[in-house]
């Protein structure tokens, strides 16, 4: 019989039933989908593009390979991977949220990027792909919204090919104390106001700030990836640890 802790999950600073969290997260991203790219630029002062570029550089992607851009949202990474794998490769943009997937599909098609991309609505905890399918999996700013992170990491490990790698780009814990205080003030006071003005939704951005604080720190996530089966797990602190890129291999 499952304990009460096993039946619940964090939704920001609140504790909710596990089956409720997925619905609540879906509502958040349905609300923010249309302004997602604009808000990313405003929230990070454009630095998210540098974080994503570094992730791509660490991916080791080559032509004719198969990539899963999980929680891929509006397709920033997918667009770059599409060019890298070429006509003989494939990129799957997967997201649990239909609204985000729709925005991503429209954005990429408007750019003329269509030939080697497929779109799949999928839950990271139960990926609908055969074992050993992908050369690389990325999940960018998505893992903290997953209800059962350990289950999701095991699912990613299963569908990754031997020799493949997982890259997790996610907000993390600043490693410089003064930066941490400034970051907290920005996240909880300024960010919701930006969300209210630009996206008419302060509540969703308040949740996003809370979800960042509840996400495992760098060493904890490293341990979770190792427990899921990944080898040679390491991480890179970016912008003083505000963001971290974790990388693990399947040997």
UniProtKB/TrEMBL annotation:
Keywords for the protein's UniProt record, in alphabetical order: Menaquinone biosynthesis, Methyltransferase, S-adenosyl-L-methionine, Transferase, Ubiquinone biosynthesis
GO terms, biological process: aerobic respiration; menaquinone biosynthetic process; methylation
CDD domains, A to Z: AdoMet_MTases (cd02440)
Chain residues that bind S-adenosyl-L-methionine: 74, 95, 123-124, 140
Reactions performed catalytically: a 2-methoxy-6-(all-trans-polyprenyl)benzene-1,4-diol + S-adenosyl-L-methionine = a 5-methoxy-2-methyl-3-(all-trans-polyprenyl)benzene-1,4-diol + S-adenosyl-L-homocysteine + H(+); a 2-demethylmenaquinol + S-adenosyl-L-methionine = a menaquinol + S-adenosyl-L-homocysteine + H(+)
Pfam families: Ubie_methyltran
GO molecular function: 2-methoxy-6-polyprenyl-1,4-benzoquinol methyltransferase activity; demethylmenaquinone methyltransferase activity
Pathway in which this enzyme or protein is active: Cofactor biosynthesis; ubiquinone biosynthesis; Quinol/quinone metabolism; menaquinone biosynthesis; menaquinol from 1,4-dihydroxy-2-naphthoate: step 2/2
Entry EC no(s): 2.1.1.163, 2.1.1.201
Signal peptide start-end: none
Purpose: Methyltransferase required for the conversion of demethylmenaquinol (DMKH2) to menaquinol (MKH2) and the conversion of 2-polyprenyl-6-methoxy-1,4-benzoquinol (DDMQH2) to 2-polyprenyl-3-methyl-6-methoxy-1,4-benzoquinol (DMQH2).
The family this protein is said to belong to: Belongs to the class I-like SAM-binding methyltransferase superfamily. MenG/UbiE family.
PANTHER family: 2-METHOXY-6-POLYPRENYL-1,4-BENZOQUINOL METHYLASE, MITOCHONDRIAL, METHYLTRANSFERASE
Protein name: Ubiquinone/menaquinone biosynthesis C-methyltransferase UbiE
């Amino acid at each position: 019989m499952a304990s009460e802790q096993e039946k619940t999950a964090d939704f920001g600073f609140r504790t909710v039933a596990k089956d409720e969290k997925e619905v609540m997260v879906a509502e958040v991203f349905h609300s923010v989908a249309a302004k997602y790219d604009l808000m990313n630029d405003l929230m990070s002062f454009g630095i998210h593009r540098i974080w994503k570029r570094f992730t791509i550089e660490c991916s080791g992607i080559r032509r004719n390979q198969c990539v899963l851009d999980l929680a891929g949202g509006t397709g920033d990474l997918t667009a770059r991977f599409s060019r890298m794998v070429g006509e003989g490769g494939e990129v799957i943009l997967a997201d649990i949220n239909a609204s985000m997937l729709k925005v991503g599909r429209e954005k990429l098609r408007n750019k003329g990027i269509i030939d080697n991309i497929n779109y799949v609505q999928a839950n990271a905890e139960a990926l609908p792909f055969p074992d050993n399918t992908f050369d690389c999996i990325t999940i960018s700013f998505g893992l903290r919204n997953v209800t059962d992170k350990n289950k999701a990491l095991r699912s990613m490990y299963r569908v990754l090919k031997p020799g493949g790698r997982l890259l997790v780009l996610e907000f993390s814990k600043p490693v410089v104390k003064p930066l941490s205080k400034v970051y907290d003030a920005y996240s909880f006071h300024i960010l919701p106001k930006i969300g209210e003005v630009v996206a008419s939704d302060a509540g969703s951005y308040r949740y996003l700030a809370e979800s960042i604080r509840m996400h495992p720190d760098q060493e904890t996530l490293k341990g979770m990836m190792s427990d899921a089966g990944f080898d040679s797990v390491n991480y890179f602190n970016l912008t003083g640890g505000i963001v971290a890129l974790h990388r693990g291999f399947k040997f």
